[in-house]
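LAB NOTEBOOK - FOLDING QUEUE
OPERATOR: T.R.
BATCH SIZE: 2
PURPOSE: Compare the predicted structure-token outputs for two unrelated chains run back to back under identical settings.
PRIORITY: normal
REVIEWER: second-year student, initials M.K.

ITEM 1
FIELD SEQUENCE / FIELD STRUCTURE:
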Amino acid sequence: MTDNERIPVDPESDKVIIGAAGEVIIPKRIRSALHLAAGTELLVETTPAGLLLKPANAPRGLRLEDLRGFLKQDGPPVPLEELCRPVDYSKDWQGSEPKDK
């Protein structure tokens, strides 16, 4: 199973109940598909859709939702033509001393 694949939800067999001590048993077919063994530590995260469980020691790559708001700016939107215009760095280099190799 790759990171982009989803396991289809089976409304009958994927329903879980929270026990008296707060424990939840993840269905076997999901544990197997995600290679979750007994003792695997999971992080619990709240999302607008509900709860998200993810392995605590999984390598953390950036996901699209992690970048939401990353490029926020104050003020009016910048036109695409201005964003794509080449940047002139010549003023930054004027008066600087060349480095010898």
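ITEM 2
FIELD SEQUENCE / FIELD STRUCTURE:
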Amino acid sequence: MWHNYSIWQPCTSINIMPTHRKRMPSATSDPGSQIKRIPVKEPTWRDLHDLKEAGESYDELITRMIRRERDYRDWKMVAEIEETGEFVAFDPDEILQGD
């Protein structure tokens, strides 16, 4: 007898909401402050939960992670420029003269 199995793992959704709001935002409120759901698998949710600091919201955790990733990408870009020797020194005052 054939069985049709699918690889399925349960997902958990992380609700990202501003910590200053107590009520659910309406459709007419600022779109930047609305709650969004991000479906993640259970192991990913556990890893995120383990990374959270006491009293930290998931929104704060993810914001912190985004900031670190952006800093890393900036650092990586500078390191690649230094490694390839494609860096050209400039005088910021000269560039800003036209403003």
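REVIEWER COMMENT (ITEM 2): DSSP finds three helices and two strands in the chain.
FOLLOW-UP: none requested
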